[in-house]
Amino acid sequence: MTDLNFIPSSADDAALRGLLCGGFFDRLKRRLSVQKISLPFCVKSHIISPVKKRGTCLVKTHCFRLRRGADLLTSLEDYSKTQHLKAASVVCAVGCVSAAVVRDASGVNIRALCEPLEIVSLMGTLSEARTHLHISFSREDLSTVGGHLREGCIVNTTAEIVLLELDGVRFDAEYDEDTGYDELVILEDTP
What we know:
Layout: H1 14-17, H2 25-28, E1 32-37, E2 42-50, E3 60-66, H3 72-82, E4 88-103, E5 110-113, E6 117-126, E7 131-138, E8 144-149, E9 154-165, E10 169-176, E11 181-188
Antiparallel strand pairs: 1-2, 2-3, 3-9, 4-5, 4-6, 4-8, 4-9, 6-7, 7-8, 10-11
Keywords: DNA-binding
Protein name: DNA-binding protein
Pfam families: PCC (PF03479)
């Protein structure tokens, strides 16, 4: 198993380097190939793929920064579709929003927060077929609020995102009568 604490190392990646501990990067960077991509909602994006060892892909990491005005959820969904992500998880997300929209735990109530908020946590699963993300924000008084990420979380200055693409599985959705929602289905991904 490879440590997940790495991102590309170059002078113009200094902002992204702060996202994750770099202690293991020096050891791993020789085994990585980095592909730069350009998307309309990103300042810069990198896809990091380790060299295959004995026919097994260790990890694949996606790093990008969203621009001011981007909708956080829509941008993540668009990225998943553009990159044809079959199964991924948010490793890290930091930044701030000028407004936010979240659904609470009831699954019914949607709350709009019209204030500047710091992103302190974003986690969940995503693929080109489905997205399920939870987010926490810090207010100016340092209290926290969070819930199920909805459209309307608008990036203020930046949102730095690191995704881990999972090898060998595919996330899909299937309606679950018990919950009333389309729920995660994990399928084996065959090449």
